[in-house]
Amino acid sequence: MEKRKKTAILIPCYNESKTIEKVIKDHQAIMPHADIYVYDNNSSDGTAEIARKAGAIVRHEYRQGKGNVVRSMFREIDADCYIMTDGDDTYPAEFALELEKQIYCGRADMAIGDRLSSTYFTENKRPFHNIGNVLVRKLINILFKSEVKDIMTGSRAFTKEFVKSFPVTSKGFEIETEMTIFALDNNFKIVEVTIDYRDRPEGSESKLNTYIDGYKVLKTIGTLFRDTKPYVFFSIVALLLIVISGAFFVPILLNFLETGMVAKFPTLIVITTLAIVAIISFFCGVILEVLKKQHKHNFERNLNLLNEIWRHEKVEDR
Predict the structure, then answer these.
(1) CA dihedral over 11, 16, 19, 21, signed as positive or negative
(2) Residue 39, SS3?
(3) Terminal CA-CA length for the chain
(4) How far is CA 114 from CA 74, 91, 106, 156, 237, in A?
(5) Could you give phi then psi for residue 12, rounded to 5 degrees?
(6) pLDDT at 1 over 50
(7) Over the stretch 242-269, which tens digit does the pLDDT of each residue have?
(8) Which end of the chain has fewer CB atoms at under 10 Å, N or C?
(9) Contact indicator for 155, 114 with CB cutoff of 8 Å
């Protein structure tokens, strides 16, 4: 008999004592077959004890930040389907079943709970968060030529292949952006499921800092764009430098044609340096693009090897 597939519900938590019990109970009622893991991130309000009494498997991550929590979750838990949700009761539990379905039917390596196409903009009372979500979505879709509707949602489901191959580098709330870019860059199957979103209940406070976390997300996008598309990134840098140097060189050239003299030697030296840097930048992009393609080939080979190992393990379990 084939071994039953295992679903793990992952709930990263930091001071969610007002909502965590309801989140756990709702998921137990909807998905009694799943194991529920709560990873407490240095809560001071008794979140871990409440979660334990509610029937969840409680573990601790002492390095502060959601990215650190996700790293530990992905490394420590073994399952066939991973469903990640937040402990603030903003994502109704019933949508987890649809996310799980997308994974088990093979349609997705990462199923995204799309809030922005439903109730997010009416439920969320923080206007700058609304603007930030739209801005990040547009940036990533332009840079990576994609059509993802909700980049920063905390409601997601993953295959084992995705979880065990995802190199978590973010420490904080920029982790969702990193997941999305990793999936797009490595051609993982992405499916979006429209879900409802409800604002935090009264007395429950968000841990997000609009400006600091927004800056971190934008920085992450820039860094990942440089790392995943080095040729495009460094070509843009080279083009900007050439344009700047050209803008200052043209007046010097025109003056030389009129008078036969170069009047601004310091400026000419600076713009010549900029032009040289532009050329170096362009060829850095070319070299890094070759290395990036080699890395992708190695990634695919390693992923195929992992899949082969897991297939043999499943055959042995029958």
Answers:
(1) positive
(2) strand
(3) 5
(4) 22, 10, 19, 9, 34
(5) -75, 135
(6) no
(7) 999 999 999 888 888 888 887 788 888 9
(8) N
(9) no
The rounded radius of gyration (Å) of the Cα atoms in the chain is 24
What is the average pLDDT score of the chain? Answer: 89
Instruction: Indicate the residue type of 187.
Output: N
pLDDT at 157: 97
- Look-up of token digits 């344009």: 243
pLDDT at 221 (0 to 100) = 87
Crossing angle of helices 175-185 and 127-143, in 10° steps, is 20
Other beta carbons less than 10 A from residue 219's beta carbon: 12
Instruction: Please return the burial class of 117, using the count of CB atoms within 10 Å of its CB with bins 0-12, 13-18 and 19+.
Output: middle
| Total residues found in the chain within this entry | 318
**Confidence class for position 70, pLDDT limits 50, 70, 90:** very high
Say if residue 278's pLDDT is above 80. Answer: yes
Q: Cα separation of 294 and 31, whole Å?
A: 42
Q: Is the pLDDT of residue 51 over 90?
A: yes
Q: Are 112 and 106 in contact (CB under 8 A)?
A: no
Burial 14-40 (b: 16+ CB within 10 A, else e): bbbbbbbbebbebbbebbeebebbbbb
| Residue appearing with tokens 């991130």 | 41
pLDDT per residue as tens digits for the range 227-247: 999 999 999 999 999 999 999
E strand spans, 57-202: 57-60, 81-84, 110-114, 156-159, 190-194
